[in-house]
């Protein structure tokens, strides 16, 4: 597994990198077959350290976790524990989907935009109804079954996932509803 361990505005020493590789590698290999790469980012928020970890699996799914602690090692250990819990919960389904899938998940390119919010509601009426784009990025849309899409959304912790339905070959959306259930939009 390839590791990318970095820090935002903080120095990451060799001892921490070794600790991350040993602990994260052991946790991921225990519950997932053939992980491909892991990205771990450390940052500081006030007096606490924040650790964000993302692991890409050979099935095409991505697991991510985030934790914070007063100690940088404690932040990583809490993040690793969350990652291990997620993977343990989905172990059987991860292995089953991998056996059924002959080829890796197919990804298609798409554009992703961040729009400016209407922060001042008492302001005068805008000149145009077009929202202001403040960032533009490239993203990937995976071709998945509905079950795989729900599992991917749960593993990544995202509230919504847009995917290409492999059985109908159209764009679909799964999302977490306010009542805790999962919604599925199939146009």
From TrEMBL:
Alphabetical UniProt keywords: Cytoplasm, Translation regulation
BP term (GO), one: negative regulation of translational elongation
Protein role: Required for dimerization of active 70S ribosomes into 100S ribosomes in stationary phase; 100S ribosomes are translationally inactive and sometimes present during exponential growth.
Subunit-level organization: Interacts with 100S ribosomes. Associates exclusively with 100S ribosomes, which are dimers of 70S ribosomes.
Biological source species: Sulfitobacter sediminilitoris
Superkingdom in the source lineage: Bacteria
Family (UniProt): Belongs to the HPF/YfiA ribosome-associated protein family. Long HPF subfamily.
Gene designation per UniProt: raiA
Classification via HAMAP family: HPF (MF_00839)
TM region positions: none
Name of the protein described by the UniProt record: Ribosome hibernation promoting factor
InterPro entries listed in its UniProt record: HPF/YfiA_ribosome-assoc, HPF_long/plastid, RHF-like, RHF/RaiA, Ribosom_S30AE_C, Ribosom_S30AE_C_sf
CDD domains membership: RaiA (cd00552)
GO molecular function, one term: ribosomal small subunit binding
PANTHER family listed in its UniProt record: 30S RIBOSOMAL PROTEIN
Occurrences of domain Sigma 54 modulation/S30EA ribosomal protein C-terminal (ranges): 130-183
Localization, UniProt: Cytoplasm
GO CC terms in record: cytosolic small ribosomal subunit
């Amino acid at each position: 597994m390839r590791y990318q361990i970095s820090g935002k505005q903080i120095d990451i020493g060799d001892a921490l990198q070794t600790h991350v590789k040993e602990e994260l590698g052991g946790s991921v290999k225990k519950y997932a077959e053939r992980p491909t790469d892991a990205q771990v980012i450390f940052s500081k928020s006030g007096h606490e350290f924040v650790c964000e970890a993302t692991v890409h699996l050979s099935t095409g799914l991505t697991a991510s976790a985030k934790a914070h602690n007063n100690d940088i090692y404690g932040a990583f250990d809490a993040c690793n524990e969350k990652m291990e819990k997620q993977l343990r919960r989905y172990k059987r389904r991860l292995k089953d989907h991998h056996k059924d899938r002959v080829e890796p998940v197919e990804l298609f390119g798409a554009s992703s935009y961040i729009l400016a919010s209407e922060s001042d509601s008492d302001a005068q009426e805008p000149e145009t109804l077009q929202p202001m784009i403040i960032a533009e990025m490239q993203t990937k849309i995976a071709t998945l079954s509905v079950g795989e899409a729900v599992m991917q959304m749960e593993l990544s912790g995202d509230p919504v996932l847009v995917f290409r339905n492999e059985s109908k070959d159209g764009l679909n959306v799964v999302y977490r509803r306010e009542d805790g259930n999962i919604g599925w939009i199939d146009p």
